[in-house]
């Protein structure tokens, strides 16, 4: 045995060396196991994400968005702006038939109507029948005004000078003289296309009450965008 030790055939460190080699051989397998564990973790994480999607919650979320948008649109359209289509030629050439206009409801909520305003209002003859019809005309007579229409010209409050109306489509055709006295809290409305306008001159109820003025028209948005005055 002593001869074998001297020859190096056996040694006291050999079992340890064998053990070390065995440990090194096991390392890749252990790494593979660790890697497998990581993949399993990733798989579980991906699965968790997929399971986290809830169709019912998603649908409810979209419904909430749509309802909120509808409420905002309703409030804007009923309390801030008035969106109207003008079906006739009574306001040509300021507004053509088929044009769509936007009016500000706030203008008459927090301010007073002015002569020359283009206004959206409730047509008084239909309102007397229980029907709500919206008209678009220009404010000509203010509360307390006297208005005389003579030879196709409008005279205010006994003036000898006719009202300057550069917005008219064409001169008014002469008719029998007409006289109007605007009551307090009311307005007298005429179209810009006077010869083809169903306006206060033709109505049974000739004056529009203050609370029936819906909005001041600010601009046209279809078929083109332009400010109106």
Automatic annotation (TrEMBL):
Region (Disordered): 1-48
A GO term from the CC aspect: plasma membrane
Pfam entry (one): Peptidase_S26
Annotated catalysed reactions: Cleavage of hydrophobic, N-terminal signal or leader sequences from secreted and periplasmic proteins
EC number: 3.4.21.89
Single GO biological process annotation from the record: signal peptide processing
Transmembrane portions of the chain: 59-81
Subcellular localization(s) per the UniProt record: Cell membrane; Membrane
Keyword Hydrolase among UniProt keywords: yes
Designated name of the protein: Signal peptidase I
Organism per entry: Clostridium fessum
